[in-house]
Design the sequence.
């Protein structure tokens, strides 16, 4: 639900986001979620919590449920929020609303793992980052 | 597993599929799955099973698990298969292998609903289409 | 120059518009110009000037000059204007400015031909459309 | 003409390359040209001619003429060749043919400048690179 989300990004749909069916192509929803995720990373100032320059986030899974077709022109409000924090990963949830009529057009989720890009291995989330996310989202320990 | 898939499409990765991380962007995997899905639709001759021109498939959910990074240049073998057939929908599964080293780089799934595009409502899958899919995939009734 | 343009569209750059060089990929500029062109079509109410449903615009050439790199996050102001009207075609020009520093980051042009989609042949621009464009852009006969 | 080109890349059109007009979107042709350009860079082993790691190519202009519509499924043969070598830049030309019927569907060109990415300034093309391109393309001094 909308009130569960603190972070929102408004994304204008581009004409070229549509496919031969005349509606927004399914892969574009993942780009919309990515845009919102990148904005959320910035909102929590994720870069400041890297303990080494080669440590950072990596997407390991992404899911989207397509609930209503979207046609250009339209603007979507795309919320992102961390819903669960693990030892080496956290889960983000997304909700995409049509600004005009307020309808939920899609929702989704993704799992972000903290990775040492050098070794390619998952590593523990920095404690300060976990604390930061909990604080930003109002999650309990 | 590879032997579970009858339909395969080889997809050359394009340089522009990569993002600032220098690897294939997450949204592109959904385009790869879509390409394979469209090829599978053609392989089962889905168009011939429409009982009306405004009846046809609609994607309602898509998921992908990203198991290994992919870098251009590369060619992926992308399998698609129906794994479950319901009354108004069926589920497709995908596996994406790197042609060079044979590694599984991603897998995913999606649910395809049979829709009357006029009303936007889900309608029963034509029996002949269900039979066709079962036969193509070697599924039991 | 900015003052030559009446129509402007602001386009937020998406993170995924960037490529492995870490800047906006060249093909995306054509999508930005397309977005502005579609907005310009709407601004002049082009659809109302079709003399038959199968008559309409077709792009026959597109050019872009890349003057400065663009990095996410950024918003571009993308102007479009008709600069020349022929018997069966008109030319559009584009200028793309970085909203933050005001720099021109790219400019381009395209030729749009009026086509009978049925035959695929170029046909004369409706006089009323030519007049409409001249009026909108303040062009002389 | 086809015989003017030594380098060719075959590019399968993806379903998602099409837009609501049901044909390949104009911006995708620039991605096709880019794929061919990257392959040509590899064919001439451009990386070996960098005199410093921060020296390399930058695209400053791109043009495409759209001659025939392309629809999925299709495979395009996309040729790239250097047509002119300057002191700090060279020009590439492209021709895109439909593999099925052999028709020219588009042609285009781009100017590639040799740049010091550190300063962002154009610098002279290494003599060895100019010689390499002339030799590869059979151009005279």
Sequence:
């Amino acid at each position: 639900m909308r009130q569960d989300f603190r972070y929102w990004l408004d994304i204008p749909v581009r004409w070229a986001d549509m496919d031969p069916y005349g509606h927004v192509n399914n892969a574009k929803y993942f780009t919309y979620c990515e845009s919102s995720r990148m904005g959320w990373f910035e909102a929590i100032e994720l870069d400041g919590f890297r303990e080494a320059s080669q440590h950072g986030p990596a997407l390991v899974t992404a899911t989207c449920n397509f609930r209503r077709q979207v046609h250009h022109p339209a603007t979507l409000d795309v919320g992102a929020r961390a819903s669960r924090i693990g030892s080496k990963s956290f889960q983000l949830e997304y909700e995409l609303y049509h600004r005009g009529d307020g309808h939920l057009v899609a929702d989704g989720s993704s799992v972000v793992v903290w990775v040492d890009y050098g070794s390619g291995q998952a590593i523990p989330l920095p404690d300060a980052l976990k604390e930061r996310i909990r604080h930003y989202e109002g999650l309990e320990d």
